[in-house]
Amino acid sequence: MVGAIASGQMAEHIGRKGSLMIAAIPNIIGWLAISFANDSSFLYMGRLLEGFGVGVISYTVPVYIAEISPQSTRGALGSVNQLSITLGIFLAYVLGMFVPWRLLAVLGTLPCTLLIPGLFFIPESPRWLAKMNLTDDFETSLQVLRGFETDITAERAVASANKKATIGTGLLVLQNLCGINGILFYASRIFRAAGFTNSDLATCALGAIQISTAGTTLSLLAVSVAFFLKDNLPHDAHSDYILSMVSLVALVAYIITFSFGMGAIPWLIMSEILPVGIKSFAGSFATLANMLTSFGVTMTANLLLSWSAGGTFASYMVVSAFALVFVILWVPETKGRTLEEIQWSFR
After folding, report:
1. CATH classification (class only), 160-346
2. How far apart are the C-alpha atoms of 53 and 85, rounded to whole Å?
3. Are 66 and 339 in contact (CB under 8 A)?
4. What residue stretches are annotated with the Major facilitator superfamily (MFS) profile domain (predicted)?
5. Does the pLDDT of residue 84 top 80, yes or no?
6. Closest alpha carbon to 257 in 331, 200, 179, 196
7. Percent residues over pLDDT 70 in the chain
8. Which of 34, 152, 160, 329 is deepest in the core (most CB within 10 A)?
9. Residue 275: which of 205, 345, 211, 187 has the closest Cα?
10. Nearest residue to 228 via CA among 153, 315, 342, 161
């Protein structure tokens, strides 16, 4: 959460690359603190440092991708970011089954360490350079990215900044209220409740299929109905097996639809609709709201599952349905449009 608060100002004053480079350092130290921990204080310190780094990266990477991408590929590149996160989570699941947690923490330092020299081989965001009046660097960055000079003018924040901030923050809050973190954190417990004996294997499989697009509401509806029926119908082996399979298929469908839908798009939309003038503050606020909501969902999921598995998924379904209405009524189409054209659409 601290990283989320600081991320906007860091990206504003030292650039997107500088923010990512700084964020890599606490990530490395955090993983090492966890790996060599002698007591819980080192584990807490490591998690705090990791949280700061992730908070900065969660805001900066989508903004950087949106600002360097051509309009024709911006959406696809934003989705690749979420896909990369998903594959990283899956890899951590798999490695965690075979290597000790201390070694896993050491392995966590590798991508953070590679990030620092890797940043020297990519250009700074041309839009940030233009905002800082670094004309020569701006043109050089565009030549590296496009192969030719592109006229990128400073965005005009004439449109309603409040509406843009509301849309960006709303999407990031709804992203977590759909229940993704609660489901992933307590996947083993959910599968046990659904009747699977090898819940760890099912959890690993759940991580493996976080790759696709479209609506989560119907998937959550199917899961909640399956759990309600399992809790209230007379038990027999045949019906329990059918309801368990319905739960598994629906959860798989939920993860698939979430990953390239509410998983990837809110970060991309937030980075696209916020004009340069308010991007640092509003982006930090939206990222903080996302982190707070993620914390809240993770902390309440266990209590909700203890109350009612079906009721838990029904609650997430209602939020997903509201998110669908929110997107239809408020969120503009950004596909195939430049960032400047998106700003003009709010006029």
Report:
1. mainly alpha
2. 15
3. yes
4. 1-335
5. yes
6. 179
7. 70
8. 34
9. 345
10. 315
